[in-house]
Design brief:
700 residues; alpha/beta; Nucleotidyltransferase, domain 5; 5 domains; nine-stranded mixed sheet; six-stranded mixed sheet; 17 helices
Length: 700
Amino acid sequence: MVYRVGIDIGGTFTDFALLKGSEVVLYKNLSTPEDRSLGVMSGLEKLAQMEGLPMDEFMAQCDAIVHGTTVADNTLIEMNGAVTGLITTEGFRDEMEYRRGYKENVWDVRLQPPRQITPRRRRLTVPERILHDGSIHKPLDEAAVRECCRRLQKQNVESVAISLLFSFVNPAHEQRVAQIVAEEMPGVHISCSHQVLPRSPEYDRTSTTVVNAYIGPRVTSYLERLVTRVREAGYRNQLMVMQASGGVMTREYIENSPVRVLASGPAGGVIGSAYAGVAKGHENLLCVDMGGTSYDISMVLGGAAPAVAGWNIHHRYLVGVPMVQVETLGAGGGSICHVNQGEIEVGPASAGSEPGPICYGRGGTRPTITDALLMLGILSDTSEFAGGSFALTRDGVAEAFQAIGDEMGYSAEDAAFDCWRMVNANMSQGVRRITAGKGIDPADMCMLAYGGNGPAFAAIQAEDLGINRVLVPKASPTFSALGTLVADPTIDEERSYLVSADSVDIGKLKSLWAELAERAHRYFTNAGFTAAQVTAKYQLNMRYPGQNWALTFNVRVSEGLGDLAFVDGEIGRRGIEIFNRYHMQEYGHIREDEVPEIAGVRLATSVVTPSPTVGHGFNAPARLARVARTRRANLGQGYREVDIVHGADLEPGHEVKGPAIIEETFTTIVVYPGWQALVDDAGDYELVRTAGPVVAAGGS
């Protein structure tokens, strides 16, 4: 048997999806914040036991282990990255603080800027200047570079970011600075902007390089530990790592640019959503992922979730590498409920996995949304939780919510219900804000819900947003892990080239694409793929003169690497035609009297690998599902006896009419009043609205 394993590490749980032939096996265990590779290894050992194999035999039969990680995100959230210094061009010391004057909330006069990764004492400058055409205006002062190294050493700097003006056109000075830093500061981690993000504008490049330097040591050391452990356990192939772009690539590639794994966990879920949605006939999806710590919102339009390179703000820092667009709210099962000046608030602080919600019985004392679900009867302390890995307890839960109720003037059950209402409102408002910003009406979309907690809230959120159909994959509790198995090995890089589209240097254009193709060929070869297996998308970044942002589009899509015959004297004209068409689609107008300019070239390469099969259709005869028992629960209309259905008992064609609760192995699907759940031919769920708004406020 040949296995493929997808892994996604969340703040609370580490999720596993094991693909063997056409069958998918799911598993979850608690994350291990002190060393997340330990949670990965314990999960792999459990999968081996489930397959009845010794660990070494199981690992030897693994064709691929694909890994999405939150190490980079957690480093920025917790601000515990490397002590980082910045060496930049004289006169540009403070651009990291100017941030283009950007402020996330223009209405909050008290909003503080993000904590500086490189405070001013660790931002040093050197005399040098390269002009926009690559010519050297002022030679590099090497003595000044060595003095910078001595000053950074005195501050115990562990990682150095190097970002000099126009290094993306001519990297000579930046390369020499890196050589001197390596000589003067042996063992220090070095990030050069011409390697991390070789394009303009200046702030984007510097910010991305600084973030790369800050998270780099933690990401690389974690991956080294994990690779060592899986190799010792018997794994013989390359460890593949999920990227924010929605593709995967080898650990060696990621180590050169660790910033590419930011938001890689949520990206896996989006890629999986696009794959499943298209298979089931839904190309426009609102994807919602509610886990233990966060609530991630993304959209699939036209069956695709394109990676956008540009103004990507993550954890209040700009990161310019290609990223699938995912917005994150601090709303998960572990989000802490509290009262602030007479108002109930939920999150963004989370109990995580240590100590976790009170009902985990691991020492938690602050009430969370998971505790509220237990109080409301949506979860039960008599049912298996997280695949039976541990049982929930009611000890201390009611008392914690009574403390909230005492402040608000009502009962513990009413307090839990209000916390449920509040987190619902937060998530629905988050969806409205994001869709409205893109001019999209969520009512025109199908919702796809996943994550351990997503299916418990999906239908009530859909009702609030005017959505009438919700997809809940059987694999929803580990959907981001499954998404890593859908993602293809991908390399997406670009180079800057500023020129009017009617004055293109064909030789220059060919050399840039050839450089990118050579890099892709090297990494794909190291990963065991041939050039013939690679699909290459040769792209241009273009804009009108004076525009800050460029549009990216394909000029050529080919199988294999290296054929640049399409780069001829007509490429400028073809580029202008394609750009104007895209500009009209995106912005509704074109500038007929202006010649667009090329801002850079981009090459997106990928290899197709085996993916899980996604079934669809409703061909089985429809019939009502058997009710296992009832339970006192509040699904928005006060407490009443609600039908409980075991997911293991359901087969294609089964229908579950609300109000009801479906208990799956790793998640709970709530069928709210006015909704019904249908099981399709693949065993996945489709929640369909059968009545108008019926959920009303109500506690006990």
